Amino acid sequence: MSEAAAKALDAADSLARYRSRFALPEGTAYLKGNSLGAMPLPVDDTVRTILDQWRTRQVRAWNEGWYDLSRRLGAKVASLLGVEADEVIIGESTTIAWHKLCSAALEAQPGREEIVTDDLNFPSDLYALQGLARQRGARLKVVPSNGIALPPEGIASALTDESGVLALSHTAYRSAYVHDLETVQTLARRRGILTVWDLSHSFGVMPIPLREAHADMAAGCLYKYASGGPGAPAFLYVRRDLQDRLANPLQGWFGHAAPFEFEETYRPAEGIARFLTGTPPIVSLAAIEPGVDLLAEAGIEAIREKSMALTRYAVDQYDALPDAGELALATPRDPEQRGAHIAFTHPEAFALSRALIAEDIVVDFRAPDLLRMGFAPLTTRFHDVLRAMDRLASMLASGEHRSIQVDRPAVT
Amino acid sequence: MSEAAAKALDAADSLARYRSRFALPEGTAYLKGNSLGAMPLPVDDTVRTILDQWRTRQVRAWNEGWYDLSRRLGAKVASLLGVEADEVIIGESTTIAWHKLCSAALEAQPGREEIVTDDLNFPSDLYALQGLARQRGARLKVVPSNGIALPPEGIASALTDESGVLALSHTAYRSAYVHDLETVQTLARRRGILTVWDLSHSFGVMPIPLREAHADMAAGCLYKYASGGPGAPAFLYVRRDLQDRLANPLQGWFGHAAPFEFEETYRPAEGIARFLTGTPPIVSLAAIEPGVDLLAEAGIEAIREKSMALTRYAVDQYDALPDAGELALATPRDPEQRGAHIAFTHPEAFALSRALIAEDIVVDFRAPDLLRMGFAPLTTRFHDVLRAMDRLASMLASGEHRSIQVDRPAVT
Predict the structure, then answer these.
(1) For residue B1, is pLDDT > 60?
(2) Which domains are delineated in chain A?
(3) Looking at the DSSP assignment, which residues form a beta bridge with residue A233?
(4) Contact A94 B119 (CB under 8 A)
(5) What is the DSSP string of B189-216?
(6) ipTM surpassing 0.95, yes or no?
(7) B32 at the A interface (CB within 8 A)?
């Protein structure tokens, strides 16, 4: 019965046809698009184009599309974010982009030596902030959540007149909790605090109210729901009226006003390009475009609608378990406060994740005890969710996952 | 006569056979391998392998080669540098790598607030140092050269007890002057100064005495003579006994001791991996391997020998000009002090470069008045050099380049 219901949901899904635009075997329930999105089929062509240019035009290709790529793809991401084309650019890794923005924000706030974040933030972001605090003699205040959520009032109570920068992940990588960006941004602005948002677990699965909130800065990963490929360079956003007030802490020629004049003294480019540093990795950059195009074609409102239906469906399956045992939902129950993944805690989360993966149900483990399922709306079917939840339930009942002997791999 | 001589040199060249391992049309005299090396033919395969893994294994491929790629390719570069495998790693862009090392060096030298560099250094390196000086309240001392060279005694006289970091390009991007690394390194060590070398214009064309000099740190570009592809991630080297004394200023999860434990507090990895930051761009990274392999196969001593013969040949052609007019050699005459490119100054350098490129003699212009010819030893033929020098001479005699009307492109 429930399988028929899942198939009916798939049949009624207006986004179902997008799955065939990605490389995914029919039998794979790929629930890790929150970690690395599946490959859009046109990536073969966009990458081959770069190699053909390198082959036939060599360095001349820099004037035949490569030099503009960071900005041109940035404009496409901007469109998906609902901000201006010249407010977004793509260059280095997410952590480097995050570091640039947080460091620039801190430098723009003399006398305010405190950086505020929370314990829901992605560890790499915390590591960057810890390093920044050490180097600048700043203080890092980590606001504690309840492990799943942190409402705006929790953040409000942590902000003081010494707070210079508020740096948060919009959607929490563990619980999928989504901060109320508009409310938090308003709280910060009232106190003269600059905000930096990590949009990695939000971009490509929901509208993000950067414009409505008049948000300051943001960075985001493009290899998750945007399917930009392994280690895809990240985007960064800086609101236009802030761009000239901020200094890129990692100055380099691609952020110079005239890189090929080879001046001895740094002069920042006008606008968003000043946040570039070195030469961007063009082959990896080229792999980003098809995924971003597919998101734009499907439309972010329709994507969010399906995303909420998918997570709601998973929670319904969980709630219907006759005995959940130690499997605890670690995700907000309100769909409005929830991103595109579902997290459970379980003491045997690692073994469960390996047992599911062995059956081509690709899920995610986050130490020490978290089992995540990410539902990229363009590639996830309702019956994939059902299959994962059904097998999870039967494994918990049988204990069969306990017989799996796998060493912890480098990447989980 | 001279054409026959050039062909004879090509016929006797033991490295001549390598040109067919790269994508380069027969009729192209490609003298810009110092800017972007030609594409090694196996790049098609290494890149396709990554796309196939992404297609068929998705995120699981991280445990099937991707996660080790930075380190595995770093070990190959280390071998070419003559240092230990765990002293080199590949991650972000050259300027980011440079920034990390210079910033880490400065932090390790409390009370020594001066960074010393020279005016031969690549502008992007200078921009990074200017930003670092501003943020850290350090002083940047730029030692003036004569425009072409700066002997060790010139550097020695600039070093003081307040100098903490000496940051130089090993081979100058304009003049091709090669610093005496061993002498300069010794000078710096005697004064307790840490050195950071930019090897971008040296790597892949000459042995670099990092080990002999007990050199401290280095970074280098892989898209020039190593043919790693447009915007290829750069390598960085830190001598093993220094690694634990230095802190990566750009902390991120890939430099953490256990990235997939998702600890809240940064703990640097043991060894060279601590200098990584974000997720490396895997597709671009994969394009690096064939070029590095070709360098290793050809052997760096043989490459240097041919390189010196090529630049000597070009200088001989220049010296044989009946009337060089305003064309001035801007490169050291001693082959030992010279990298793999030749530079000339001329007031019409830009027009000359465009006129040569229009005939598929791909040379290089560097504002305001520099004409460069880079001789990547694995792809440059002696008759390419002759053709370029002959046409340069005839253009200067006829003035025909003056009729070329081309706007300055973004990338020159």
Answers:
(1) no
(2) 2-30+299-403 (3.90.1150.10), 44-295 (3.40.640.10)
(3) none
(4) no
(5) HHTT-EEEEE-TTTTTTS---HHHHT--
(6) yes
(7) yes
